[in-house]
Specification:
39% helix, Rossmann fold, alpha/beta, 379 residues
């Protein structure tokens, strides 16, 4: 099979969309399929055997990890030369709007995947009045594709209520070898200032308003015996560091690879206050690392955290409820351990290989329904 992908975020940016794309390209190469990916300029020329076609653009002010990539010449011609069997729009925003027209002109099966809830993000950047416009625009793009894949059941239900059609769930996998409790390091804990008897709370992710990291400041005040480590970077970091000055908090900046795996495994509780997630890949990574999770009762976190079994859910945006959940875990080491073990077992059932095989089945299903495929099969 020959697969073409169009995305508005890719390497060197590291986020959930990029992680998923890299895993997909690895999987396609391992299964001996051919791929091409159209992505913002600045990344590698190729990845996992796939050519990366660079596209001009500039970062979105709302979300710099995603590029404003305007329509540009040459995409349709390059696709025509590649002769793909299927075209996949990955989290289409600006450039992705061209996908339906290109697919129609080339008679290609068109599939899309929904990753980022820009409509919900708008509230956190003073653009809440544009929420309905964002939703209408994204619905217009996705409803012109044959299938839209959603990362969680909660996202599918939300999109269906907003008038999105032809929806299916396609989840995300987790690397249970890279993320493992065995990487716990007392030396690492000491390096971030953990004192004897303290419980280490961990946040991993982008430091932006939409992630609600500001709630951690209020939750940490009055929480005896807890120390917070914040892993990640973003536009909100300077303000967060100023607001949390004097609290037991350590900012590491961006971590990856073995350093990130060690950070997860060396913590005691993972805390995730974001209420805008369509999935929440870092939650799965924390669970694979043996951590109980305290997350907002919203979005993709609902698909991952089983209340009272793998962690606790708190009312979105309510710091006092978050603090109460954390206080309960700080006081019960045995409960933390049991939840962490349950989370690890959950993660072990969600391999990237099975997730990508599921996507390949969607590709094959779309291809079998394609007029081009039926003609090639003959009478």
């Amino acid at each position: 099979m020959r697969v073409a992908l169009i995305t508005e975020t890719f390497l060197p940016n590291v986020n959930g969309v990029t992680t998923t794309l890299c895993r997909l390209l690895d999987h396609l190469q391992a299964r001996e399929h051919e791929a091409i990916i159209f992505a913002p300029q600045g990344g590698p020329e190729s990845y996992a055997g796939a050519e990366v076609v660079p596209l001009g653009g500039m970062p979105l002010p709302l979300y710099p990890e995603v590029n404003f990539t305007p329509p540009q010449f040459g995409i349709a011609a390059r696709l025509r030369r590649f002769k793909p069997d299927v075209l996949h729009l990955v989290s289409p925003i600006i450039l992705g709007a061209l996908g339906p027209g290109i697919a129609s002109s080339l008679r290609l099966p068109l599939i899309s995947s929904y990753h980022t809830d820009l409509a919900k993000y708008s509230y956190h950047y003073g653009l809440g009045f544009l929420k309905d416009a964002f939703c209408s625009y994204l619905r217009w793009i996705h409803n012109r594709t044959r299938l839209t894949l959603c990362p969680s059941r909660s996202t599918l239900q939300s999109l269906r209520a907003q008038g999105f059609r032809r929806l299916r769930v396609w989840g995300r996998g987790v690397d249970t070898v890279r993320f493992h409790p065995d990487y716990r390091s007392e030396a690492w804990r000491a390096s971030v200032g953990v004192q004897p008897g303290e419980t280490l709370l961990l946040y991993v992710g982008r430091l932006g308003r939409e992630k609600r990291v500001d709630l951690l400041e209020d939750a940490l005040r009055g929480l005896e015996g807890g120390r917070l480590v914040v892993v990640g970077d973003g536009p909100a970091r300077p303000d967060l560091q100023q607001q949390m000055e004097g609290l037991p908090v350590h900012f590491t900046g961006f971590l990856k690879g073995a350093d990130l795996a060690t950070a997860y495994a060396s913590a005691d509780v993972f805390v995730f206050p974001s209420d805008t997630e369509t999935f929440g890949q870092v939650v799965q990574e924390a669970m694979a690392s043996g951590l109980p999770v305290v997350g907002a009762r919203s979005g993709g976190t609902l698909d991952l955290v089983q209340e009272g079994v793998t962690g606790y859910l708190f009312e979105p945006g309510v710091a006092s409820d978050l603090r109460a959940r954390l206080r309960s875990l700080l006081a019960n080491p045995a409960v933390r351990q049991a939840m962490g073990e349950s989370g690890r077992k959950f993660a072990e059932r969600r391999s990237w290989s099975s997730v990508m095989d599921e996507l390949m089945e969607y590709y094959h299903r779309m291809l079998r329904r394609s007029p081009r495929y039926r003609r090639s099969e003959g009478p």
